[in-house]
Amino acid sequence: MKYWFYTFVKAVLWVFFRLGFGLEVRGQEHVPQQGSFIVASNHVSYLDPPVIGVACPRRLSFLARSTLFQHPLLGAFLRGIHAIPLRREEGDLGAVRAAVLRLTRGEPVAIFPEGRRQFSGRLGTAKRGVGLLAEAARVPVIPAVVRGTFEALPPGSRRLARAKIRVAFGPPIPYTTDLASTAGPSGRSARSRHQQLADALTQQWCRMLEQNDG
């Protein structure tokens, strides 16, 4: 695949978010310089995907709602950055396989495990799909927290507002998620393992928000 368009868009958006919203990024040292991983971020605004793409030092593949590809300009843009279409209303195994394929090729993937934007602007909980994807590809999960995008472009709004946007990346969560305090029996079900990773991600999001607010 050729990624010149992604590189060009990232450079333009970096200037846009830096000058227009004072974009501040922390924790980039937690993002592996090599190999694949999943960036898992909270989601409160349509600005979150481009902000995460700009903040991450590695090129990311995004999963995007399949209906967005039907719009002529937006669809062309999403194909240009090699986004993966996802049918959100149903179990889209094709999208999961496509994401796993990219991860096994060493390409990082970004997802928003809450499932959809949080219209309250508050942190939601990660769904177990992030655990399924991480275990299937055997890659770590890098938690990411975005703040300020809800104020800049809340759900339902079509106008940008002035707001400080911040992104923080946290330490990797291994796909095995055998955390001493919460690990179940070694023979626990796949569903339980996937949920355990999702719960660990939600807990890490909360800690990151507390640390950054403090």
Tell me about the biggest sheet? 7 strands, mixed
Order of helices and strands: HEEHEHEHEHEHEH
Across the major sheet, the strand order is 1-7-6-2-5-3-4
CATH superfamily: Glycerol-3-phosphate (1)-acyltransferase
| Helix share bin | 25-40%
Number of E-state strands: 7
Structural description of this entry:
There is one protein chain. It is globular, with a radius of gyration of 17 Å. It is of the alpha/beta class and 214 residues long. Helix 3 (72-80) links the parallel strand 3 (61-65) and strand 4 (84-86). The model is unreliable at 179-186 (pLDDT under 50). It contains seven helices and seven strands, in the order H-E-E-H-E-H-E-H-E-H-E-H-E-H. Helix 4 crosses helix 5. It has a seven-stranded mixed β-sheet with strand order 1-7-6-2-5-3-4, with helices on both faces. The chain has one domain: Glycerol-3-phosphate (1)-acyltransferase (3-Layer(aba) Sandwich), CATH 3.40.1130.10. The N and C termini lie far apart (42 Å).
Can you give keywords for this protein?
214 residues; alpha/beta; Glycerol-3-phosphate (1)-acyltransferase; 7-stranded mixed β-sheet
In short:
With 214 residues, this protein is α/β, with parallel strands linked by helices. It has helices spanning 4-21, 48-55, 72-80, 93-104, 129-137, 149-152, 190-213; strands spanning 24-26, 38-41, 61-65, 84-86, 109-111, 141-147, 166-169. The radius of gyration is 17 Å and the shape is globular.
